[in-house]
Write a structure and sequence with these properties.
alpha/beta; 2-enoyl-CoA Hydratase, Chain A, domain 1; Lyase 2-enoyl-coa Hydratase, Chain  A, domain 2; 2 domains; six-stranded mixed β-sheet; four-stranded mixed β-sheet; 12 helices; 10 strands; 16% strand; globular
Length: 263
Amino acid sequence: MATQEQDSLLQTRDANIATITLNRPYKLNAMTKHMWGKLGYMFQALNLDNSVRCIVIRGAGDKAFSPGNDISEFETDRSNSEQAEVYGELMHDTMDAIRNCPHPKVAMIKGICVGGGLEIAGLCDIRICGTSSRFGVPISKLGLVMGYTEISALADLVGPAIAYEILVEGRIFGSEEAFEKGLVSRIVADEDVETEVIATANRIADGAPLVHRWHRKFLNRLKDTTPITKEENREGFTCYDTEDFAEGYKAFLDKRKPKFKGN
């Protein structure tokens, strides 16, 4: 079991695309305290790596992305409020590291994506699932509250009204309803999920990374209702002074694929 826990989170790299795998298929990739900590550590390192163009998060196997936290840990690590707060701080630090990641993130969702698993997928920018995938947050049936950091990830994705509907009913629902609610970006046939995610990650990686970061910054700024300043508007023209812009338009004129360097 020690080896299984050590290998419960894997990271691989294909050129400039990093893939993180929740690797507990014998538990449907249920999250443990160890996994939350290691996931946060991985993202903290990836966030500083400017050679990364895209991050894919997936579950091992075809049965589940993740059903959330491993319930067997409640007796040992979350049996009272003091233990739960320590566990929660670890989770929240990891969620903040994912949320603040400057690189585009794609969730590859096969099978079950519930509770904490849905929180992780929801922090990704693009979420692609199979037709048989299932979603929900049935924590009310455990007498468990979703804290502010966790609930914000859900509310930011679908809005407070739908977030409350998902939480108060605790119902497990299918991919079509998940798409209608805004939980997923795209539904494909189960056997095509991996192919579609890889193609999506490659399309992202082919784009200019500085542009991806600027767009994220601008979209986050627009959540603030204060007026955009003249100086902030001016930043939208900074891209014209980058090497990537020169490469981009020259490649277009030359009818070739651009080679962006992030400069």
